[in-house]
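Field log, afternoon session.

UNIT: design team B
ACTIVITY: writing a sequence onto a fixed backbone
BACKBONE:
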């Protein structure tokens, strides 16, 4: 199982949010320093999110992303991408893969065009609250069924998806294994996100055949030792 250490960037700082709420934030310093720390601990891929862009609708992390990409580790990134130009710019800045969330709902034609242009460099961001897709930095809940959206994304040619149960995110309350596994029934390779609190959660996901997991607060607080987790998930 692939582990993706997360670096969420808000106003130029590496942060963690609780339940995805902008006012419930913990600052963890410079994003590039944080990226280097994860790479030094064995990270083989990073998950970088532009929270300012997700909330405000304008991507603003490309310069930071360029510096992170120089660490020579693949970067998966999302947040604030609303146009093909912004997607192009993010990839030109060094992103290996781009996660599209809100735009999949607000502009499905753009989502389709991005998949046609970039293929498996496009990852579906499926952020769910009560089974429905949440958008705009999780501040709004749509009426689109998350599972149905996953099936549609797969039919378009998307291979991978980041699935986040918002009710779990940043709370160290335990990953929603059942919902994650249900999403995998769409045919997508699912990267679990939200609520992962300890090695037991990772073992459960791996045992069920989960493709990957994003680690946030658990590695920032030391609840999970990233270097150990990476080695054990390889076995």
């Amino acid at each position: 199982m692939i582990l993706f250490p997360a670096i969420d960037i808000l106003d130029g700082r590496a942060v963690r949010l609780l339940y995805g709420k902008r006012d419930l934030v913990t600052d963890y310093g410079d994003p590039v320093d944080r990226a280097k720390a994860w790479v030094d601990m064995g990270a083989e891929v990073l998950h970088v999110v532009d929270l300012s862009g997700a909330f405000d609708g304008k991507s603003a992390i490309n310069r930071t992303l360029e510096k992170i990409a120089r660490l020579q580790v693949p970067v998966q990134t999302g947040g604030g991408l609303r146009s093909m130009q912004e997607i192009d710019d993010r990839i030109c800045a060094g992103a290996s893969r781009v996660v599209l969330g809100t735009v999949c709902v607000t502009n499905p034609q753009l989502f389709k065009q991005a998949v046609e242009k970039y293929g498996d460099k496009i990852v579906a961001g499926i952020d769910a609250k009560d089974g429905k897709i949440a958008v705009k930095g999780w501040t709004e809940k749509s009426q689109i069924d998350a599972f149905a959206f996953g099936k549609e994304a797969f039919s378009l040619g998307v291979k991978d998806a980041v699935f986040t149960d918002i009710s779990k995110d940043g709370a160290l309350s335990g990953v929603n294994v059942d919902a994650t596994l249900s999403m995998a029934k769409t045919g997508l390779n699912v990267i679990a996100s939200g609520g992962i609190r300890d090695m037991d959660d990772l073992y459960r996901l791996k045992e069920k055949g989960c493709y990957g997991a994003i680690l946030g607060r658990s590695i920032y607080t030391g609840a999970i030792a990233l270097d150990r987790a990476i080695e054990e998930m390889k076995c």
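LOG NOTE: DSSP finds eleven helices and twelve strands in the chain.
NEXT ACTIVITY: expression trials, pending approval
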